[in-house]
């Protein structure tokens, strides 16, 4: 079982193996049943005007997703192989955990701009420092032939937050380094 974090909220993923399809499904269901208090959330009510309306609260709930090793091997970890406890069907990991941009490791715009300012002050060539920037694979797209690496001047790095490609809009790079390798910055904590 592995644990994923996103902005302070834990998410768990479970991969079951070494059994037939029925046994694997039963194992996943057993874990879902045993962990229901963790992922189900709680029902809140407000009684007024003879109305007993309610709503689910998930503030303290921990999303848990499960799959089989066979599904991972045949469809890959980003394919529709994940079952989120409490929901029906199989989904991609991003859909199952409701991960939305910016990706893990991406900074907000204000922090990105401040960081570029600091790096510029402390780099020997200042704003003329040649650097490279790497964007993570976004929203399930695995394209090893196009790794979203950009090169340019550190003084122009502010614009990297607004790349024209649709899948890079409103993201900061997760790795930035000087071309001479005198420094490197990594913001993706899942290295």
Structure characterization notes:
By secondary structure, the chain is α+β, with helices and mostly antiparallel strands. It folds into two domains: 2-96, no CATH class; 109-186, no CATH class. 23% of the residues lie in helices and 27% in strands. The strands form three sheets. A four-stranded mixed β-sheet has the order 1-2-5-6. Strands 8-7-9-10 form a four-stranded antiparallel β-sheet, with no helix packed on it. A two-stranded antiparallel ribbon has the order 3-4. The protein starts with a strand and ends in a 5-residue tail after the last strand.
* Percentage of residues in helical conformation: 10-25%
Helices and strands: which structural class? alpha+beta
How many H/I helices?
A: 5
What's the helix-strand series? EEHHEEEHEHHEEEE
Computed CA radius of gyration, to the nearest angstrom = 22 Å
Major sheet summary line = 4 strands, mixed
- First-last Cα distance: 18 Å
How many domains make up the coordinates? 2
**Oligomer kind:** single chain
- Provide the spatial order of strands within the biggest beta sheet: 1-2-5-6
How many strand elements? 10
Q: Specify the overall morphology.
A: flat
Strand share of the residues?
A: 25-35%
Unreliable parts: 1-8
User: Averaging pLDDT over every residue, what do you get?
Assistant: 78
């Amino acid at each position: 079982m592995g644990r994923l974090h996103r902005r302070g909220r834990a998410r768990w993923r479970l991969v079951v193996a070494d059994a037939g399809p029925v046994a694997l499904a039963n194992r996943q269901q057993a874990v879902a049943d045993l962990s229901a208090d963790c992922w189900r959330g709680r029902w809140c009510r407000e009684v007024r005007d003879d109305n007993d309306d309610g709503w689910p609260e998930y503030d303290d709930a921990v999303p848990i997703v499960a799959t089989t090793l066979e599904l991972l091997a045949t469809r890959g970890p980003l394919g529709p192989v994940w079952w989120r406890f409490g929901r029906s069907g199989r989904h991609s990991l991003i859909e199952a955990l409701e991960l939305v941009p910016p990706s893990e490791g991406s900074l907000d715009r204000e922090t990105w701009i401040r960081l570029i300012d600091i790096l510029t002050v402390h780099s020997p060539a200042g704003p003329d420092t040649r650097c490279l920037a790497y964007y993570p694979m976004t929203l399930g797209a695995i394209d090893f032939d196009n790794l979203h690496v950009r090169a340019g001047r550190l003084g122009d790095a502010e614009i990297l937050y607004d790349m024209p490609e649709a899948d890079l809009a409103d993201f900061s790079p997760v790795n930035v380094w000087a071309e001479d390798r005198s420094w490197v910055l990594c913001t993706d904590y899942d290295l």
